[in-house]
Write a structure and sequence with these properties.
This protein has 8 helices and 6 strands; from the N terminus they run H-E-E-E-H-H-H-E-H-E-H-H-H-E. The chain has a 6-stranded mixed sheet with strand order 3-2-1-4-5-6, sandwiched between helices. The longest helix has 22 residues. It is globular, with a radius of gyration of 18 Å. It starts with a helix and ends in a 5-residue tail after the last strand.
Length: 230
Amino acid sequence: MITRIIEACASVLFGKRQFRKSLRDKTLGDTPLASVDLELTSLDPVTTQITSIGYVSGSAGKITLSSSGYHVINTSADLGQSPVIHGLTLDILQQGEGLADAINSLLPLLKTHVLIFHNARLDLMALDSAFKRCGLPQMEVLYIDTLQLALYQLNKQHQVLPSNSATLTVCRQRLGLPAFPEHNALDDALATLQLFYAQLNELGITLEDSIESLFHTNAVGRFSLGLSSS
C-alpha cells in the first residue's frame, strides 16, 4: 500500500514537472488566447447547464474583435434565478440554438488556443458536462484563470480577503479598467481578456515571457473535456 502511494505521488510530481517544462516553450506574445465565458443556470458544477456562450480571441497583447462569437442555448433546464441575473428568459432561450451546434462553433478555439477564464473551474466543469451530453471525444485544454491571478495578488496584500474582492468587476476596478455591461457572456469574455492583459502588467510580466512565468500563481492548468476512449 505504501509503495503504491509513493509511486502515485512520484507520478503526480513527474507529470507536474513535465507540464511546467512544456509551458516554457510558449511565450505569452506568440500564443493565441481565447477568452471564454459561460452564463449558467446555477453555480452548482454538477447540475448547472449552459444558457449562453461568449468568446473572443487575442494575441500579442491585442484583442481581435472580429473573432468574437455569442451563442444563446435552447435549454429546458430549471432556470432558477438565472433570468434575473443574466436576462435570458425562457422565451429567449427557446429561440436559441442547440447545445451541440454552439459547442461545435467553439471547438476550433479549444483546439488551438490557450483559454482565459474568470473562475475556470466552474466553466470547465460545465463545458465538460456539455461535451459528454453531446458525445464528444476527450480533449485536453490549457487554461489561465484570471480569478486565481487576482487571488494570488490579493493574498500578498491581505491576511483576510475582503468580501467579493475577486469578482470580475472589482478586479477590473482595482486595475483602473473601465466599467462594462455585466452578465452577458460576450461582454464578460471581452472584459476577462482585458483584465488578463492588465494583470500581466501588474505582475511585471511581458509578452516575451513564457506562460511558465505564471505557474507559481496557480492560475495555469490543463483540463480534460469529454468522454474518455477507455
